[in-house]
Amino acid sequence: MSHAINSMDRMTFSTAMDLRFDGIAREVDFIAWHSDDRLNDMQRPPQLVIGEAKSLGQGDLITKDELAKLRSVAEKLPEAVIVIAVLRDHFTQPEISILRRFVAWGRRVNVHGEPTNPVLLLTSHELTMDHNISSAWKTLGGKHAQFSGFNQVRTLSMLADATQQIYLNMKSFQVERSEYWQKRHARRQARQANTKAGTVS
User: CA–CA distance from 10 to each of 117, 118, 161 (Å)?
Assistant: First the structure.
């Protein structure tokens, strides 16, 4: 991850972290601080990263119980990026189903209009890449190549959004929010029309 986006990014991490809060104990596979050192208008404070990692295995590696535990940690750490990594090139259909719900929860909007806990999905394609995400995805072609542009993966949040579209076939966060506001506007117009019709009658 430290060189996934840009060579100027910096990351420090610790593995197998035991956390205690509200009288309960939780273990996470890794916690990291990610800093974008580029001197441009995209510079932002370091981001906290919470990671769940799975090696090779058969069947479903990601379970509801594990995501529930990860969610309990993320609820205490709003704006932390959640990373879910598997050392294979895909997620199973049952995993996709529960991950979609988990990502939807992570997309709850914060005061800045951004996802509160962006969920970044990594597979063997990203974990074993030679250079960076853009070149790896361009080489893979297909849907991956559609997100290989630098402007689509220049931050962890953007990268998270791209991986959600690639591996879970979800709409982008921006499209989802745009549809939300369109529906809300349509409902408001319908209520106003009904109120006006009732007043006239």
Answer: 20, 19, 21
Find all residues with CB under 8 Å of 64, minimum gap 6, and list them: 98
The mean pLDDT values, 10 residues at a time, for the chain of 201 residues are 62 88 90 72 76 86 94 93 94 96 96 93 91 89 91 85 96 88 81 72 61
Do 185 and 146 lie in a common domain?
no
CB atoms under 10 Å from CB of 163, counted, come to 27
Total domain count for the chain? 2
Contact 59, 89 (CB under 8 A): no
Q: Where are the beta strands (DSSP E) in 46-103?
A: 47-54, 81-86
Say how far apart CA 127 and CA 4 lie, in whole Å: 9
Range of the domain at 72: 9-170
Give ∠ CA 84-51-8 in degrees, rounded to 5. Answer: 100
Burial of 73 (0-12, 13-18, 19+ CB in 10 A): buried
In a domain, 42, yes or no: yes
